[in-house]
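Hello everyone,

My group is preparing for a crystallization screen and wants a predicted model to guide construct design. The compound we'll soak is zinc ion. Before spending weeks at the bench, it would help to have a computed complex in hand. I've included the protein sequence and the ligand's SMILES below. Output in structure-token form would be ideal because that's what our pipeline reads.
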Amino acid sequence: MNTDFYVTVLGSGAAISTHTRNCSGQIVHLHGFRMLIDCGEATQIQLRVCHERLQSIELVCISHLHGDHFFGLPGLLSTMQLCGREAPLTVVGPLGLRSIMDSIFNLSGSHIDYPIEYHELDYESLANGLQLQVFSNNKCTVRAFALRHSVPSFGYIVEDKPKKGESPHRYAYCCDTAYFEELAQQVEGVDLLCMESTYLDSYAERAVQHQHSTASQAATVARDAHAGQLLLTHFSNRFKEPHAFLDEASPIFPNVILAEDCKRYGVF
Ligand SMILES: [Zn+2]
Ligand SMILES: [Zn+2]
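Reply:
Good plan to model first. Here are the tokens for the complex, ready for your pipeline.
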């Protein structure tokens, strides 16, 4: 596994967490820089279970405001305060995230003294297929783009800044989203595509209704985008046999793996 640019999956389950799959969350590591993408309930526990250092997170990106993707955030930010954090934190997410967090902290009498810089994303301004740079430092840039889901939802692309002469590597996170053809263009050529596959094909109609994807749809995006590898995540707990996701995805895109909690995946 590449130790310079990799992802630790903290939660790989859909809405309801189970004893083997927590709700969504993952840490992207990039040359010592750490960012958290999504923060479902119990993410801070998963950080400890997976031996990830909580205070070293510099950036949090939230995909959308469904609970399984951000109900862990107020607890995590409070714990950072209780553990003496002084370093600033950047939080990127959909419009409304800041007022939710402010309300929780105000009404609960929680004081957050370290600086939090919110960057809220307006879905309409990205709905025409644009990508917006939401973060940049000397190690990476992060861009957001619009997904299609029952509430405004954003995908993220993390791109490293390699030394001169090398081409950059890219990691894309697409969760939650329905399948749509243009998604492949958004993630064209990424080294690792992490995409939700809540359902199997037998639930394709339900996937459309709830604006989620099936394993074969995620594989179609990976194939059309010429991705290096596909990492499936966000599995509904109704499917007891995870291998079925591989069986449906691999005929379309063979280089596919299933996310497991607390496992690490190299981006290239
Ligand atoms: Zn979800
Ligand atoms: Zn959702």
